[in-house]
Design goal:
Elements lengths: L2 E4 L1 H14 L4 H16 L10 H9 L10 E4 L4 E5 L5 H19 L1 E9 L5 H10 L2 E7 L20 E5 L7 E5 L6 H9 L9 E2 L9 H6 L1 E2 L5 H16 L22 E9 L7 H13 L15 H11 L3 E4 H11 L1
Parallel strand pairs: 3-4
Antiparallel strand pairs: 1-11, 2-3, 4-10, 5-6, 5-10, 6-7, 8-9
């Protein structure tokens, strides 16, 4: 597949200008662009520039509000509720994580629920912001139907990521950011667009047969991790990010690529808390925890036992020194959106 190299600063400027052309303020355009570029740098291409056209299409169809009046309701010193007014998800999530951090710094714990939002990219991107402030975080968001509840024939739950992050006492944070599906939907969309196959055992077609055809997978059902356990985790996230927050749930989140009948009304839940709530030597304890696990005997072919977030951090550092590779399809998107 043909790829084009672009300097990060030039690419950022292009994307900011595209978002501004579609009505976002300079601040909101910068927030959204930084999140998309981060996804490219950590190698999460399904959440990066492959989604830019989708966001712009949704703004154009008036199902994302480019000039939202976002309201933050203070419930207590620790708890806030954000009505995102159908803003682009990056902006709602940026406000929410910053509010959760501020609340936690004041009281020890911050909890922020968000309703009337949209797709916000990578949960780990927001977790990293909390970790930099020496906070532990848990983040939940729901998504459009892709997974069938265990025992059902129809997809209803999203790939509903679960995110946990903690400081490690070193420069590399521990960030577990995983969808409850065998692979995330963004990867399948990228494969479909580029006419690539997907791995075996990750999806069924609309007739319930295993498929490696990405387009047939999008029409069918994605498989959850660990059978009924994965389905149960998806349900848990749907409750925490949808039912609890006032967002859509139980299969009502609209697909951002295919359903322009209205806003997504995705719900998010951000929880942050101080590391010293119960012990004063957290850094020493977490370092010991990681060190103990890394010292375990390794299976053949494994050089190092890695904790979640290590590989992503290495990719970010490596890619930050290079130009960003984009496919000719995404380059074409950029040209169309600019003009």
């Amino acid at each position: 597949m043909e790829k084009v190299k672009l300097k990060t600063n030039i690419l950022k400027r292009e994307i900011i200008n595209i978002f501004k052309k579609f009505g976002l303020s300079n601040n909101h355009a910068s927030i959204s662009t930084n999140a998309l570029i981060n996804a490219e740098l950590v190698g999460a291409y399904g959440h990066g520039l492959s989604r830019l056209k989708m966001y712009c299409d949704r703004i154009k169809k008036k199902v994302i509000n480019p000039k939202p009046k976002i309201k933050i309701k203070k419930i207590s010193q620790s708890i806030s509720h954000v009505d995102a007014n159908n803003s682009i998800g990056f902006v709602a999530a940026d406000i929410a994580i910053k509010t959760a951090i501020k609340n936690a710094k004041k009281t020890g714990i911050g909890m922020v629920a968000v309703k009337n939002s949209g797709h916000y990219g990578l949960s780990g991107y927001y977790a990293e912001q909390a970790i930099k402030k020496n906070l532990i975080t848990m983040i939940y968001t729901n998504a459009p139907p892709a997974i069938a509840p265990h025992g059902a024939l129809k997809s209803l739950f999203g790939t509903n990521p679960i995110c946990f992050g903690t400081p490690t006492g070193s420069k590399i944070p521990f960030i577990l950011d995983t969808s409850i599906s065998m692979i995330n939907r963004g990867k399948i969309r990228v494969a479909a667009r580029n006419n690539q196959k997907i791995p075996e055992g990750v999806a069924l077609d609309k007739f319930g047969k295993p498929t490696t055809n990405a387009k047939k997978a999008l029409e069918g059902v994605q498989l959850p991790i660990a059978s009924f356990r994965g389905s149960g985790l998806a349900w848990m996230v749907d409750i925490l990010s949808g039912v609890l927050t006032g967002g859509n749930h139980a299969g009502k989140v609209k697909d951002p690529f295919d359903d322009f009948s209205g806003p997504q009304n995705i719900g998010h839940l951000f929880i942050t808390f101080k590391t010293n709530l119960f012990v004063n030597n957290f850094n020493k304890r977490i370092k010991n925890n990681i060190k103990t696990i890394k010292k375990l005997p390794k299976i053949k072919g494994i050089k190092e036992i890695m904790y979640p977030g290590q590989n992503k951090y290495k990719r970010f550092k490596m890619n930050s020194k290079k130009e960003i590779n984009i496919t000719s399809i995404i380059k074409e998107d950029l040209e169309i959106l600019k003009n």
